[in-house]
Structures are given as structure tokens and as C-alpha cells.
């Protein structure tokens, strides 16, 4: 496990190799993280979550699956981004089913907002991706508007993306589908060049 600290993350030291790094924000219990790490062993994943039991479960799942390309940070994603990441170091970012804060008075707590995206985008290398998924329609609309409206990001789909076949089904997605709420994916890339 990697602690949040005031020194830059060194992926080569943490993983013992130079490889593309994907940041997964809100890894929950870690099943999706482990499945994607096993499916793409050439990519290193840094998963961050504030939920201690989820982090513990993710670490146990990664060990049980003999997955060596995952490192876990217990803490707040904003602290990680501000204190440990360097510009252009990420090949991509995954944010699957962030807390929707459904009450109107709490929506200011939603993660994917303009200030957060402004903080995150410089850490993504040109050509790198940001992929979000949610089954809460108004949050999906907000995510789409914020990401598609950012001047450094490009949405090739001109709206929501088709569900990528390599994104594992999460328990939140399965529950939402059972309750009649399909997932909506937003996939954007950081522009290359001016």
C-alpha cells in the first residue's frame, strides 16, 4: 500500500518497471480493479479509495489472483493528485460509479466537477483517457458536460460512449440494471498538441 505523502509518486520504483499508469479513483472492494489488471498486465494501476475495508479487500483479491500490477492508496483522490502526481504521468483515469450524492443540497460534493477536472487533466498525458461510468442520469449529464466542455479534452462520441466491452460489470451496475437503470459511459481523451 502506498501512503499519501508530499513526495511525487515514482511508478518505476513502486512497480519495478516502466509501464503506462492508470489511476482508478474509487476502487471500492476492488473486483473491477483486479479483473482489469489481470486482463492488461502491461499496464500498472494505482487505485485510490477512502474506504479502509474496501482497500483491504482489494489488496487480498490482488494477492489471491496473483496480480502484481496494482498498487493501492488509502486516502482522498484529491490529496493524491495534488501531492503525489506529476503532469503527464497518467495514461488514463477510471472513475466508475462515483458517489452520486443524490440530494440536491449535497450535489456540490460530487467528485466530477469543473475544479476537480481542472486539477486532474494536467496529470493525464496527451492522448491519455478519462473514463467515467454511472447509472444516475443527472450525474451522467453533469459528467458529460464537464468533460466534453473542457478545452483540453476531446469526446470522439459527441455524447455518451457505448459501454466498453472490457469494462467489467460492477455490483453497482448490476444492481442498477436490475432496477431498470442502465449505465452511461463518458470516454474522453486529452488533446495532443495545441
Give your account of this protein's structure.
With 194 residues, the chain is an alpha/beta fold. The chain has one domain (11-190): Rossmann fold. The protein contains seven helices and seven strands, in the order H-E-H-E-H-E-H-E-H-E-H-E-H-E. It has helices at residues 11-15, 31-39, 52-64, 77-84, 114-120, 137-148, 171-178; strands at 21-25, 44-49, 70-74, 90-96, 124-134, 153-154, 184-190. It has a seven-stranded mixed β-sheet, sandwiched between helices. The protein is globular, with a radius of gyration of 16 Å. The termini are far apart.
| CA-atom Rg in angstroms | 16 Å
State the helix count.
7
Largest sheet: 7 strands, mixed
Number of strands: 7
- Under CATH at level 1, the class stands as Alpha Beta
* Distance N to C terminus: 37 Å
From the spread of the alpha carbons, the general shape counts as: globular
| Percentage of residues assigned to helices | 25-40%
Strand order of the largest sheet: 3-2-1-4-5-7-6
Average predicted local confidence, pLDDT:
95
Runs in which pLDDT lies below 50 for 5 or more consecutive residues are none
**CATH architecture label:** 3-Layer(aba) Sandwich
CATH T-level fold name: Rossmann fold
| Strand-pairing-aware structural class | alpha/beta
In CATH terms, the superfamily is Vaccinia Virus protein VP39
The tally of domains stands at 1
Strand content: 15-25%
What key attributes describe this structure?
194 residues, alpha/beta, Rossmann fold, 7-stranded mixed β-sheet, 7 helices, 22% strand
